[in-house]
Amino acid sequence: MNNPFEVVQGVAVEETNKNLDLNTRITNLISSAPIFLFMKGTPDMPQCGFSANVVKILNHHGVSFKTFNILSDMDIRDGVKQFSNWPTYPQLYVKGQLVGGNDIVTELMHNGELEEILKN
Is domain 5-119 in CATH 2.60.40.1120, yes or no? Predict the structure, then answer.
């Protein structure tokens, strides 16, 4: 089970083509769903509290989202940090745009802005 995978509503799906350059692979992952989360672990088994919290928030809002377990692929794990210029995980993207990590997503939820971001 060393293969990287993304989780789509709990179903393991093969990752994008490894023959593509790293930025293309990352872009393809992000654009594979309107709401995309790079996280440690999977929605069913998060591997850190921050990832678990963002999954909980997304589930609370009842939105469908795809995830990628960055612990399963070191190239993606390191590459996304450079791609986004954001040093930590999780990283939430909505319609291809970085929203932020746990702190920002939590703050947006508390001030009511996240629901609007997720709907648009």
Answer: no
Residue 57's contacts (CB-CB under 8 Å, 6 or more residues apart) are 105, 106, 109, 114
CB contact at 8 A, 83 and 25: no
Task: Specify whether the CB–CB gap between 86 and 101 falls below 8 A.
Answer: yes
Whole-model pTM: value is 0.84
What's the number of CA atoms in the CB half-sphere (13 Å) around residue 11? Answer: 4
What is the reported pLDDT for 120?
73
| Residue with the two structure tokens 């609007």 | 116
pLDDT band for 12, please (50, 70, 90 cuts). very low
Distant-in-sequence, close-in-space partners of 4: CB < 8 Å, separation ≥ 6 = 15, 68, 69, 72, 73, 76
